[in-house]
Design brief:
- The protein has 7 helices and 14 strands.
- The protein has a 6-stranded mixed β-sheet, with helices on one face. A 6-stranded mixed β-sheet has the order 9-10-11-12-13-14. Strands 4-5 form a two-stranded antiparallel sheet.
- It is globular and about 55 Å long.
- The N and C termini lie far apart (about 55 Å).
Length: about 290
């Protein structure tokens, strides 16, 4: 007998400044929801944080009288600041990330020479997720897929017929994630992508970002079948060695993300700002000649 697979309702909100898609996910007839990869607005010129993107999430949740069960991160993003802490304060829910975040915290505590009280044990998050762990979102069951390579702590979330892939994959005409951040590895990413591409061909895949080439409209939903047929980096027929060679060569040409310095320092804290100093102000650090 064939087991039926649930089809969760997915509401996307796209931030054009960081090209990031935030998702609100819930099951039919259920009030509980999950928020995946939220965005806190950050102005790198002034160092000011605002909440326009996160407030759209709050408005959507409250208008529909949803209850937030989980605020999920696919990884510690380098290209946008997480709104997880703000959303938890306003809406409740547990903030969760893959348990390998401890490796990322250890690396960046050293790079930024963070305060001695900063803990590298993931305790800033409410829950650290293990590979293949199952969590409930109302009448939906979400499975955690461990998909390292872009970072050593990346996870994806398989919820019914939908998978939220984080930065492992982009739309087919954009390709795949870079692997030159600390702990990244092209061979590992190739293996992680195969985990996703070996799912049923009709599986819906939701990207964390879209960087549209050639002026096309923004898209952030595709399928396993479309990725296998058309992804410019990992479509059918591209070998592991070809992918590794391409990824290594391409990564040497890429600039650092505009927001990497503020984003990583905040995101490894589950979206919380660094502790205020004796003048009541929080500060971020810029390591010179390091990255």
């Amino acid at each position: 007998m064939k087991t039926s697979i649930s089809t969760p309702f997915v509401h996307p909100l796209f931030d054009p400044q960081t090209c990031t898609a935030t998702y609100i996910v819930h099951g039919e007839g259920s009030s509980e929801c999950a928020i995946i990869d939220s965005v806190l607005d950050y102005d790198p010129k002034s160092g000011r944080c605002t909440t326009a993107n996160a407030d759209q999430v709050i408005d959507y949740v409250r208008e529909r009288q949803h209850q937030v069960k989980w605020i999920l991160e696919t990884h510690a993003h380098a290209d946008h600041v997480s709104a997880a802490s703000y959303l938890k304060y306003r809406l409740g829910g547990k903030v969760a990330i893959g348990k390998q975040i401890t490796k990322v915290q250890k690396v960046f505590k050293g790079i930024f020479n963070l305060e001695s009280s900063f803990r590298e044990d993931g305790s800033q998050f409410d829950h650290l997720l293990s590979s293949d762990e199952l969590i409930q979102v109302g009448n939906l069951t979400a499975k955690v897929l461990y998909v390292p390579g872009h970072t050593p702590a990346c996870v994806a979330y398989q919820i019914g017929d939908a998978v939220f892939v984080g930065d492992t994959l982009f739309m087919p005409d954009v390709g795949t994630a870079r692997c030159d951040f600390p702990g990244g590895d092209a061979k590992t990413l190739y293996s992680s992508i195969q985990v996703i591409l070996n799912l049923p061909p009709e599986t819906r895949l939701f990207m964390c970002h879209d960087y549209p080439p050639n002026g096309r409209e923004v898209r952030f939903e595709t399928t396993v079948a479309e990725q296998r047929a058309k992804n410019i980096h990992v479509r059918n027929g591209i070998t592991e060695n070809q992918f590794i060679d391409m990824r290594k060569a391409r990564d040497t040409t890429l600039d650092m993300p505009v927001l990497i310095l503020p984003a990583v320092q905040i995101n490894i804290r589950a979206g919380a700002l660094p502790p205020s100093e004796d003048n009541g102000i929080s500060y971020l650090k810029i390591p010179l000649n390091t990255l």
